[in-house]
Design a protein that fits this description.
By secondary structure, this protein is an alpha/beta fold. Bound molecules: 5'-deoxyadenosine and iron/sulfur cluster (SF4). The site of 5'-deoxyadenosine has 12 residues, from strand 13.
């Protein structure tokens, strides 16, 4: 109810502001970070549109909202840099509204820095109270000289039914859980996203049914650790059960999910994936390190051997699966020998692709105070060696379907060559092939003629 009152106040404020300007006001929400943030941004745009803003995606907009990430230090540096740029624009247009939200805002110290050094930022909120956006917009429109800050440390509440503007009409993320309880020793996420909370299966399935009725064909179930979905619900449900039920929804042809923690990946999940063709043949399984000694210091709760065993269980149940991963190089105390264990796992698992990261020291995490931090040169040298291996194997793996006909969900007209369209295989590999705009949102069979590194060039094949 209170949300409605604030919404009306924001709508009235905006109407007055646009009368003063003599034109409709625009708003842009710019996303940094992961799929969770991308989905949050769809809700933020939904709320901005409900207030009455015209949604754009440029920083020229009357209101610019940065939905921030903080997983590595350079994510924060980037935001501070971009704020300087927004400030120069605001000097020319003092009515410009600058807003910040997302993970970085939950980090201790950041709010103080914004108060002190960025007084021109109009409003700030966090990851636990997105729904307060209309309230803060109303306050800023009424008192543009003040800075409004609303941060909650954590919450048990999940606010359902926020309006959303989806980026794609044919695919959508679906949050299934928020937060993380794992406390990997390098990671700031548990501190900024709070404790694990699962949405109820009914709420999730209702959302999927509504999306299917709306024409969505592909969904991505989102959570920091989807394999521990449902454990804290009053009536516990496993992630595998949820997947099974999601696959029953008519109209949904493809189901993806992100991210899996190896320690919680169950045999039941492997069985459900193997027997259910709607579940994409892709698993993102963060390794982080191949050294059992480092994994222990990372608090990952699996060993190199267990990880490899899990991969072979998955591969024998689902032979055509594509595996991808995240790897951190230069964790405190990582020796050349530890690093070689990582290279060894990469060679054995043969990932289709891997995100590789330089270890970033995040204040407040246990790893930040470990004594044996790795020097920059060693870290970069290892990073380059890892990247070379990951790319060589990735190219070979990606190419293994050359000559086959596979279904592609068409996403867009190719940006460089207008007679091509671009889509994705179930395993997430990008495919370009001759076709027209009318194919966007369709799943069509495509012959994979030629693999060019990490994508295919193909031709549409006849449907059976
Ligand atoms: N330094 C470098 N990479 C990190 N990640 C998380 N925390 C850090 C850190 N402190 C990486 C992990 C995770 C991905 C989302 O980001 O690999 O899986
Ligand atoms: Fe970045 Fe993690 Fe937040 Fe995603 S959840 S935006 S990766 S800090």
């Amino acid at each position: 109810m209170e949300r409605q009152i604030w919404l009306h106040r924001a709508q009235r404020g905006l109407q007055k502001a646009s009368e003063r300007k003599g034109r409709p006001l625009t708003a842009a929400c710019i996303t940094f970070g992961c799929q969770m943030n991308a989905r949050d941004s769809e809700k933020l745009r939904g709320m901005l549109a409900e207030i009455g803003f015209t949604i754009t995606d440029t920083e020229e907009a009357d209101l610019v909202l940065y939905n921030t990430c903080t997983v590595r230090e350079n994510a924060n540096t980037k935001i501070y840099g971009r704020l300087g740029y927004l400030h120069s624009m605001k000097k020319k247009d003092p009515d410009k509204i600058i807003a910040l939200c997302g993970c970085m805002m939950q980090e201790p110290g950041v709010i103080e820095a914004i108060r002190r050094n960025y007084p021109y930022v109009n409003m700030v909120f966090g990851t636990h109270n997105l729904y307060r956006l209309p309230e803060l917009v109303a306050c800023v429109l009424e008192s543009p000289q003040e800075q409004f800050i609303a941060i909650l440390k954590d919450t048990d509440e999940i606010v359902e039914d926020l309006p959303k503007i989806r980026k794609y009409h044919f695919k959508s993320g679906v949050n299934i859980m928020f937060g993380c309880n794992n406390f990997c020793s390098y990671c700031i996420v548990p501190y900024v996203r709070g404790r694990e909370k699962s949405r109820s299966p009914e709420d999730i399935l209702n959302e999927i049914r509504t999306l299917a009725q709306d024409g969505v064909k592909e969904i991505m179930l989102l959570g920091q650790n989807v394999n521990s979905y449902g454990k804290t619900l009053q009536e516990p449900v496993t992630f595998a059960e949820l997947l099974d039920r999601a696959a029953e929804v008519d109209g949904i042809d493809r189901i993806r999910f992100m991210t899996s923690h190896p320690k919680d990946l169950s045999k039941e999940l492997i069985r459900v994936m193997a027997r259910n063709p709607k579940i994409c043949r892709h698993l993102h399984l963060p390794l982080q390190s191949g050294s059992t000694r480092i994994l222990e210091k990372m608090n990952r709760r699996y060993t190199k051997e267990r990880y490899l065993e899990l991969v072979s269980e998955i591969r024998s149940a689902i032979p055509d699966i594509s595996l991808t991963t995240d790897i951190i190089v230069g964790f405190p105390g990582e020796t050349e020998e530890d690093f070689r264990e990582t290279l060894d796992v990469v060679s054995r698992v043969r990932y289709d692709s891997a995100f590789t990261f330089l270890y970033s020291r995040r204040t407040g995490t246990p790893a930040a105070s470990m004594s044996d931090q790795i020097d920059e040169n060693t870290m970069h040298d290892r990073f380059d060696r890892l990247l070379t291996l990951v790319q060589t194997i990735g190219r070979e793996q990606t190419a293994r379907f050359t000559g086959q006909v596979m279904p592609v969900l068409v996403e867009s007209v190719n940006t460089q060559q207008k007679d091509l369209v671009t889509g994705r295989l179930g395993n997430n590999t990008v495919v370009h092939f001759p076709g027209s705009k009318s194919l966007i949102g369709e799943i069509v069979p495509v012959r994979l003629d030629e693999c060019r590194g990490f994508y295919y060039l193909g031709t549409q094949a006849r449907s059976e």
